[in-house]
Design brief:
22% strand, 9 helices, 35% helix, alpha/beta, globular
Amino acid sequence: MTDARTPRDAERGAEDPLGGDPRLARYFGERLVAVAAFRDALVAEGEIRGLIGPREPSRLWERHLLNSAAVVPFLPAGAVIDVGSGAGLPGLVIAAMEPEREVILVEPMERRVAWLEEMVGRLGLENVRVIRARAESVAGLVRAPAVTARAVAPLAKLSRWCDPLLSDGGAMLFLKGRAAADEVATAAGDLRELRLSAEVLEATTLPELEPTRVIRVVRAALD
């Protein structure tokens, strides 16, 4: 059984309560190897390279990797565009879990793009393309049935940026916190203007962890 804990954890004071938990192997299956390697890279380099905060290495599984993985069951078939990929959450997690699915990572910051490209090579992810750009800049150049984002912008602004990237019949899937329902209510007028509708979905990963809130945004049916 794969052990998700590595010597680097102790060296960097990053002992994760879920490190080595056998349920991770059951949840991720054979893809745990790639996801755990990504986690190890974040522990070793993430804080130094300004990708994660100093408190995050010890809670990467719960707060970041499993949180990102929770969106996968809601993805429609086909490619995914991950907007504002940053450290690779959720885009690299999706790509590691779904190696047959094309994943396009859109990120404007050069140092983050360099990290993403390094991770694609180090993890052997042949299904990933990295584009250095803002979402608004790639409108009309790339489209996909699914557009994801995590901790990028408020819902109204994020929906406006991502809607042009969405194929007909697709869905935007945004990872949000406990206030997801309030955010949907706040953005209601903007969403109507864009002819979009939104709902909050709850996704569970490991039983005792708080569910992940996913806001699914789709184009509203024409009257």
